[in-house]
Design goal:
It is built from four helices and 47 strands. By secondary structure, the chain is mainly beta. The protein has a domain of 208 residues: Lipopolysaccharide (LPS) transport protein A like domain (lipopolysaccharide transport protein A fold, Sandwich), CATH 2.60.450. The protein has a 26-stranded antiparallel β-barrel. A six-stranded antiparallel β-barrel has the order 6-7-10-11-9-8. Strands 1-2 form a two-stranded antiparallel ribbon. A hairpin with a 4-residue loop joins strand 11 and strand 12. The longest helix has 7 residues. It starts with a strand and ends in a 6-residue tail after the last helix.
Length: 735
């Protein structure tokens, strides 16, 4: 069995061979036990042995020397040579051959490894010999074991007979590996084991007659640890991955994944990594889904990033699913099941010192088939951009240019090309107390259209200037509270924007929309996204920011608020909407509060001034007093459409027991959207997770999934991986 790491060029090693790696290549230098072993009662320090550089140093209580060749040594004997120490109460040392023989109890030490035995024969200058009834310790891994015989032949071969290994405390061995024979070939960095058995609580539950494994960071093909779980929609699940070490920069994993209610799915993963490229492709294929009308189903996900030349970057992302219910059935969480479009795109980017250029192709697969064709995104075939990127220099004239050409295509709709050119001139003035930045932009947009509505212009154009002035001051005052210094700032800001009206009714809407209105939208020069619509404006934004910093310069409080005042109605809409006549926008604000290093809070609020009510609000409080002690509470609100609470928890009930939970509820619908609950138990050398998760799918049905995982510390994990579930479900979760 093997354990795979996260990327090509790193190792995938047999889970049984961590013991053997430790014996064959002991770490150099001592290391204090990590938090992984915090619950252990026994901690052995790694031996500190100096390098004698080819000399043998001898100390003993007494001894007899025969012809300066044979040394008969007695009492507290220590032989040191080349980072190794050999100890006993009775040793015969042969000087010319560098042999040492001990008929009684011995202790053999090197960096990171301690071996004790009943007797030994050691060739000190060649690192060869044999130890009978060997008992070894690996302090850095908190591991120990035994072998009826441990023999080694220089740097090439180490053999262990009737060996066992565990990372548990000696008095409480919960799990252990036993093997009849283990051979380590150091020259080829390969090991073999015969008749290996893994036992838990003295019950054997895994056996292999023969296994090979690597002895270094080199990866090796083999089975990964299996995973299993249970889902109310798919039934019992078991997956047994097989790992292929194809090349140092190329690997793959093939996983038969059996669902008791659906059938056998094959999952494949291929990864590559070179000096200029890296990528990963994931495939899933279910030839016949017993629940889904015996239909074949599957998915493709491909991601590539590359730098074939300096400054030149490439990117490819392709996603495909066989049917609109695929994410519902196999997505397993809210973020995946709620996707409505899957991106399919490729780009080529070049970054010079003062400009960038890019070419992008983009399409989407629409997951939700109920979305009408008129609302689905266009294909970009292609999108070409050229932008200057000179940094803005204060107190002098600055020039920037943004350009793009896009070809929009979608069957049955208005298609065409769009060219947009936007030069920008600004003259920012600033000092430590204030800033003043006038800006002039000019927007030129031209279209060449097909499938246009009869009577509409096939080549519409739009030209208009945009004028803005951004200004602000910085005020600050120092306070002393309880003997501590605090700095309070007050930062008022005014932003004026003028954009003349242009009739844009003959211009199609390819990719423009209306972004959600929040604090950052106060300072945009266009209330629409993209350039199919440029909103007319004669408006003034008033905003203020206040910060509170402690004596170390850490921000303990930041609050911002702002509003736009309109001096004329807004006449430009996305699709012929009536003019907006409100004299002012909603008031938007946000807050970041760090009460202490343990308690933090964020909030944002949007107040509808026309209706005198809260239109949107979010608040989140996080309590994090220490490692794996975490509580999150949040509330999300949108007028008449959304009210949600979200509570999550990771908390110790004792040093060994942790409780885990999350509860997401729609207050408006009186419905649970997601519940997650379980516990974690761990002691010195093993850990157990149990989780159950229930979430609402997009088809308004619930899916309940169970996760079981047991981890043998320092060896492997068996079962469904829960870390990804907890990292995505509980903000701030740490492995």
């Amino acid at each position: 069995m093997t354990e795979k790491t996260t990327g090509p060029g790193r190792r995938a090693i047999p889970w049984m061979s961590l013991l053997l790696l430790s014996i064959s290549a002991p770490a150099h230098g001592g290391q204090a036990p990590s938090s992984q072993w915090a619950l252990c009662t026994t901690h052995t320090a790694s031996p500190d042995v100096e390098n004698t550089q080819g000399r043998t140093l001898i100390t003993a209580d007494s001894g007899t020397i025969f012809k300066r060749e044979i040394y008969e040594l007695f009492g507290n004997i220590v032989l040191e040579r080349d980072n190794k120490r050999f100890m006993s109460d009775n040793i015969t040392y042969f000087r010319s051959t560098e042999q040492a023989v001990a008929p009684g109890d011995i202790r053999y030490e090197m960096q990171g490894l301690i071996v004790e035995g009943d007797s030994a024969h050691i060739q000190l200058d060649e690192d060869s010999g044999a130890i009978a009834n060997a008992r070894f310790q690996l302090p850095r891994r908190h591991a120990h074991g035994a072998a009826s015989k441990l023999s080694f032949d220089g740097d090439n071969v180490t053999k262990l007979r009737a060996a066992n290994y565990t990372t548990c405390d000696p008095g409480d061995v919960a799990w252990r590996i036993k093997a009849s024979d283990i051979t380590l070939y150091h020259d080829t960095q390969v090991g073999t084991a015969r008749n290996a058995v893994l036992s838990f609580k003295k019950v054997p539950f895994f056996y292999t007659p023969y296994a090979t494994f690597p002895l270094s960071d080199e990866r090796k093909s083999g089975f990964l640890t299996p995973s299993f779980g249970n889902s109310s929609k798919a039934g019992r699940e078991i997956a047994i991955p097989y790992y292929f070490n194809i090349a140092p920069n190329l690997d793959a994993t093939l996983t038969p994944n059996y669902f008791s209610k659906r059938g056998m799915m094959m999952r494949g993963e291929l990864r590559y990594l070179t000096g200029i490229n890296r990528g990963q492709i994931n495939l899933e294929y279910l030839p016949s889904d017993k629940i889904y009308g015996e239909r074949e189903r599957g998915s493709v996900n491909y991601v590539h990033q590359g730098n074939p030349f300096p400054r030149l970057g490439t990117m490819v992302e392709y996603n495909y699913i066989s049917d609109g219910d695929y994410l519902n059935d196999f997505g397993r969480n809210l973020s995946k099941t709620s996707q409505t479009h899957l991106p399919q795109r490729a780009s080529l980017d070049y970054r010079a010192d003062s400009w960038t250029a890019s070419i992008r192709l983009q399409d989407f697969q629409t997951v939700d088939k109920t979305i009408p064709s008129s609302s689905r995104p266009y294909q970009l075939l292609p999108k070409i951009t050229f932008d200057t990127t000179r940094p803005e220099i204060q107190n002098r004239l600055n020039f920037q240019l943004k350009t793009e050409m896009v070809n929009f295509q979608r069957k049955g709709r208005v298609n065409g090309r769009r060219i947009d050119i936007r030069p920008v001139v600004s003259f920012p003035l600033s000092n430590t107390a204030a800033f003043f930045k006038p800006t002039v932009k000019y927007e030129y947009t031209a279209y060449t259209l097909s499938n246009q509505t009869p009577g509409q212009d096939n080549r519409p154009k739009r030209q208009l200037p945009l004028y803005s002035i951004d200004s602000g001051v910085f005020l600050e005052k120092t306070y002393e509270v309880g003997g501590k210094q605090f700095l309070n700032t007050l930062e008022p800001r005014l932003y004026y924007l003028y954009v003349p009206y242009r009739n844009q009714s003959e211009i199609p809407v390819f990719d423009s929309g209306r972004p959600d209105f929040n604090y950052n939208q106060l300072f945009r020069d266009n209330r629409f996204t993209s350039v199919d619509r440029v909103g007319d404006a004669n408006q003034l934004t008033t905003a203020i920011t206040s910060r509170l910093l402690n004596e170390r310069g850490e921000e303990q409080l930041k609050v911002r608020a702002g509003q736009i005042f309109y001096f004329s109605d807004r006449r430009v809409g996305l699709r012929g909407n009536a003019p907006e006549t409100s004299p002012a926008s909603a008031i938007v604000s946000d807050l970041n509060l760090n009460i202490s290093s343990k308690i933090t809070s964020t909030a944002d609020l949007r107040w509808d001034t026309d209706k005198d009510q809260v239109d949107k609000g979010n608040i989140r409080v996080r309590y994090h007093p220490g490692y794996r002690r975490l509580f999150n509470a949040s509330y999300r609100y949108r007028s008449r459409t959304l009210q949600q609470t979200d509570l999550s928890l990771l908390w110790p009930l004792s040093p060994k027991w942790h409780v885990i939970g999350r509860w997401v509820r729609s207050v408006l619908d009186n419905t649970d959207l997601e519940t997650l609950g379980g516990f974690e138990y761990q002691n010195c050398c093993w850990k157990f997770h149990f989780l159950t998760r229930r979430f609402l799918r997009s088809d308004e049905s619930y899916d309940t999934t169970y996760f079981l995982q047991i981890e043998f510390k320092g060896l492997t994990r068996i079962g469904k991986d829960v870390d990804d579930v907890l990292e995505s479900g509980i903000l701030g979760y740490e492995k």
